[in-house]
Specification:
Rossmann fold, alpha/beta, six-stranded mixed sheet, about 675 residues, 5 domains, 13 helices, nine-stranded mixed sheet, Immunoglobulin-like, about 25% helix
C-alpha cells in the first residue's frame, strides 16, 4: 500500500502541526485537567490530536495506491436459436416443453461454477432465458460477431450454440469464428431428413417501376423428391391471375428460373403474389406462396439538354443520365427549341454563347436549376464561350471539403486519372457561397481555379462544368474498367442534386414506404414557423390504421429541433398513416401508405444442417451434442481443464476521503472524547 498526494510532503507535517495547535489550545491552557490522571489527560489529547489531524489530511486529496487481486470466473455463453424453423418439424411440441425445461435445468446446474450468460438469436442477438421460436430470420454469423465485440478480453470458457444449423441471413458462420478463442459446443436441433417439397426459393424484381412501363420478374423454383410431377406458377394482382406458367419437375433435386414481364399500370405501392399449385405429396405447403411489392412512380423527372451544336459531350451526358431509370432526357438545339421549360426539373446548357430572351425569361420566372457545361459560370443566363479566351488542357482534382452530395471512394480516387479537358485560361470570380467539387490541375501544378462548381442563389441551384471534352472521361472509364459506372455516378449524382426541388412545406413527415415485418415503423417529423425556422413547440400526433380498420394512436417525442416516433413492429400488411399538428391558427396534416412485407425465409428451407454445427464445433475445439444429451454436455464442460477461472492483479487508486472506515475512525475519536469529557463533567 502506498499513499499518494498532489501536495508536497511538508503539507502532511502542517496537518500534524494543526492537530497539535488545536489540541494545545484546549487541553494545555485548561487547568481543570491537571488534577486528573495522566492516562485520562493523554487519552483526551490523543483523541483530539488524531481527529483534527485526520480531518486536515482529508483536505489534501490523498490517494491510496494498492495492488488488488481479482478472480474472474469463466463465462459460459448459451445461445438459443429462436427462429421458427426450429419448431417446423414433428418434434415441435417436445422442443417447446421438455427441451426448454431441460435447458433451464442445465443452466441452473452450471451457474454454480460458471458465470452464465443466456441469449436468444434470430436476425439479432438478445439477452433472454425464455424462447418462443417466432423469429423470422436466422443470422448465426452476426451472433459470433456480437460475442466478439461484447466479450473482447473476457474469460470466455465456452459458447453453447443450440440451433438447427439453418441460416438465411448474413455470411457463413464458419468464416466468423476465427477470432473466437473458445470452444463452441453445439446442440443439434431439427430434422435432417429432406421432405418432399416444391417451394419458391427466390423472387427477383425491381424495387421501382414507372407507370406505363414493363418490368421483369424472376421466380426461382426448387423441388425435392417430386420427380415427374407438374405444377403451375401463377402471378396474381388483387386476386386476378396476370401470368401463369406450367412447370414439369424432371429430377428429384429440381431447380429452375421462370421469367415474366409485367406491366406497371397503377401508380403507388403495388402488391403481387406468386403461387405454386399444391401437390398432395408436398409436405411443406407454407413455402408455396410469396408476395412482393414494387413502387410504381407515376412520372419520371424530365431533364432538358440545350446545345449550341451537336457535340460528343452531349451524348456522353445523355447516356450517363439515362443509366438511372429515374430520369427522362430530351435534347435539342437552343435556337430550334420552342417548348415551355416548366415541365423540366433541370436545364443543361452546353456551350451556348447566347440564350434567347424567351428562354432566359422562363428560367428566371420558373426559378429553374441550370447546369452549364463548357463556358463561363459567372452569369448563368449570359454565358461566354469557352473558346472566346485562351485555353489550357487541365485535369481534375477532387476537393475533400465538398459536402453537397457524396461520391463513392472509388470515384473520388479515380477523378485524378480522368484525361485532360480544355478550359479557359481565366474565369470570372465565383458567386458567394459556391462549392467546388473539382479544381484544375495544369501539368503538375494544382490551382485554385474551379473545374466543376455549384452555387445556390436565392434558393435556385446552379452548376457548372467549365471544361470541354467530358466525353473522354466516359471513354477512359470504360477502357480501364469495362463499364461506365464511375462516369455515370458523377453525372447522376450531379443531376440528382440539381434537380431535387426544395420542400417548402411547414410540416414534413419522413418514413420508409416498404419495410420488413421484423423491423419497427419509425417516423421523423419537422415543423417550421413562418420564418422557416425549426420548432418543437406544438405536439405532433399520428394515427396508424391497418387493413381491418383498427386504429393505433401515437404522439411524437420531441428531440431538440425535430420529432421522432417508433411505433414498434406490426404484422405484414398495408397500413395507412396520418400525422397532424396545429401550430398557431394553422392546421397541417400529412398522410401516406406503408407496406410491411412478410418474411418467409424460415418457411423456405426447414431441413436442419447438422453438418455445419459439427464443423463449428470441430474447428473451435468443441463438440456436437443432441437435445437429449445435456448431462453429457455438462460433464464435458466440467472436465475441460481449459475452462478455468483467471486471477489477475492490477493497481488501484482510492481517494482517502471516499473510504468509509476513515470516517468512522474520526467519528469514534470525537465521540470518545466527547463522552469522557461529558462523563467527567467538563462539558
Amino acid at each position: 500500500m502506498e499513499f499518494i498526494s498532489n501536495y508536497p510532503w511538508y503539507y502532511t507535517l502542517l496537518c500534524l502541526v494543526a492537530g497539535f495547535i488545536f489540541t494545545a489550545m484546549l487541553y494545555f491552557r485548561d487547568k481543570h485537567y491537571s488534577d486528573r490522571s495522566s492516562l485520562f489527560r493523554y487519552s483526551l489529547i490523543g483523541f483530539r490530536f488524531l481527529s483534527i489531524s485526520l480531518i486536515a489530511l482529508l483536505l489534501m486529496d490523498i490517494f491510496i495506491k494498492q495492488l488488488v487481486n481479482e478472480t474472474e470466473k469463466p463465462i459460459i455463453i448459451i445461445t438459443q436459436d429462436n427462429s421458427s424453423s426450429i419448431v417446423a418439424g414433428k418434434d415441435s411440441n417436445e422442443l417447446k416443453t421438455n427441451y426448454c425445461s431441460n435447458l433451464s435445468s442445465f443452466i441452473t446446474h452450471i451457474k454454480e461454477k460458471y458465470d452464465v450468460k443466456s441469449y436468444q438469436f434470430d436476425s439479432e442477438l438478445k439477452p433472454s432465458d425464455s424462447f418462443n421460436f417466432k423469429g423470422k430470420e436466422s443470422d448465426i454469423s452476426n451472433l459470433f460477431l456480437d460475442i466478439e465485440n461484447n466479450y473482447a478480453n473476457k474469460n470466455i470458457g465456452a459458447i453453447i450454440l443450440a440451433s438447427d444449423g439453418i441460416y438465411n441471413k448474413g455470411n457463413n458462420p464458419l468464416y466468423q469464428i476465427k477470432n473466437i478463442n473458445a470452444p463452441i459446443y453445439t446442440i443439434a436441433l431439427g430434422d435432417t431428413l429432406p421432405l418432399k417439397d416444391v417451394r419458391i426459393q427466390t423472387i427477383n424484381h425491381n424495387q421501382v417501376a414507372y407507370l406505363g412501363n414493363s418490368f421483369p420478374l424472376e421466380v426461382v423454383l426448387n423441388a425435392t423428391d417430386l420427380k415427374d410431377k407438374k405444377v403451375s406458377v401463377d402471378i396474381s394482382y388483387h386476386g386476378k391471375i396476370l401470368k401463369s406458367e406450367s412447370v414439369f419437375i424432371n429430377s428429384n433435386n429440381f431447380n429452375t428460373t421462370i421469367n415474366y414481364v409485367l406491366d406497371a399500370n397503377q401508380p403507388g405501392i403495388q402488391k403481387y403474389t406468386v403461387t405454386v399449385s399444391q401437390l398432395d405429396e408436398d409436405k411443406n405447403k407454407q413455402n408455396n406462396i410469396q408476395s412482393f411489392v414494387i413502387d410504381v412512380i407515376d412520372n419520371r423527372e424530365k431533364i432538358l439538354i440545350l446545345a449550341n451544336a451537336p457535340h460528343p459531350d452531349i451524348a456522353a451526358i445523355e447516356q450517363g443520365i439515362s443509366s438511372s431509370q429515374t430520369y427522362e432526357v430530351e435534347t435539342a438545339l437552343m435556337n430550334d427549341f420552342s417548348k415551355p421549360l416548366k415541365p423540366y426539373s433541370l436545364i443543361i446548357i452546353h456551350q451556348v454563347t447566347s440564350i434567347p430572351q424567351r428562354i432566359s425569361n422562363e428560367l428566371k420566372a420558373n426559378n429553374q436549376s441550370v447546369f452549364f457545361i463548357g463556358g463561363n459560370y459567372s452569369d448563368i443566363t449570359k454565358p461566354k464561350s469557352l473558346f472566346s479566351n485562351k485555353s489550357n488542357d487541365v485535369e481534375g482534382v477532387y476537393q475533400k471539403d465538398f459536402s453537397l452530395f457524396t461520391l463513392s471512394d472509388g470515384l473520388k480516387n479515380y477523378i485524378k486519372n480522368f484525361p485532360a479537358v480544355i478550359c479557359p485560361l481565366k474565369n470570372n470570380p465565383l458567386p458567394n457561397g459556391s462549392n467546388i467539387l473539382m479544381t484544375q490541375k495544369i501539368g503538375v501544378v494544382e490551382t485554385d481555379e474551379p473545374l466543376m462548381v455549384f452555387s445556390e442563389i436565392n434558393g435556385i441551384k446552379h452548376g457548372s462544368f467549365i471544361g470541354d471534352g467530358i466525353w473522354r472521361w466516359r471513354m477512359r472509364d470504360y477502357a480501364e474498367h469495362g463499364n461506365h459506372n464511375l462516369f455515370n455516378e458523377l453525372i447522376s449524382k450531379t443531376v440528382q442534386y440539381l434537380s431535387v426541388k426544395a420542400d417548402k412545406s411547414f410540416f414534413r413527415v419522413f418514413t420508409k414506404k416498404i419495410i420488413n415485418e421484423n423491423e419497427p415503423i419509425d417516423f421523423t417529423a419537422e415543423v417550421y414557423n413562418q420564418s422557416y425556422e425549426l420548432t418543437t413547440e406544438p405536439d405532433v400526433t399520428l394515427s396508424l390504421k391497418d387493413e381491418k380498420n383498427k386504429l393505433y394512436n401515437y404522439t411524437f417525442n420531441k428531440k431538440q429541433t425535430m420529432y421522432q416516433l417508433s411505433a414498434g413492429q406490426f404484422p405484414a400488411g398495408e397500413y395507412q398513416y396520418e400525422a397532424k399538428v396545429k401550430y398557431g391558427d394553422k392546421f397541417y396534416s400529412k398522410s401516406g401508405i406503408i407496406i410491411i412485407k412478410e418474411i418467409v425465409s424460415e418457411q423456405i428451407n426447414t431441413v436442419a444442417n447438422h453438418q455445419l454445427l459439427f464443423q463449428l464445433s470441430k474447428q473451435s475445439g468443441g463438440k456436437l451434442f443432441y437435445k437429449n444429451q445435456f448431462n453429457e454436455l455438462e460433464k464435458n464442460i466440467l472436465d475441460n481443464d481449459s475452462i478455468k477461472s483467471i486471477t489477475y492483479s492490477h493497481k488501484q487508486l482510492t481517494d482517502l476521503v471516499s473510504l468509509k472506515w476513515v470516517f468512522f475512525i474520526i467519528l469514534a475519536l470525537l465521540s470518545l472524547e466527547w463522552f469522557l469529557r461529558k462523563y467527567n463533567g467538563k462539558l
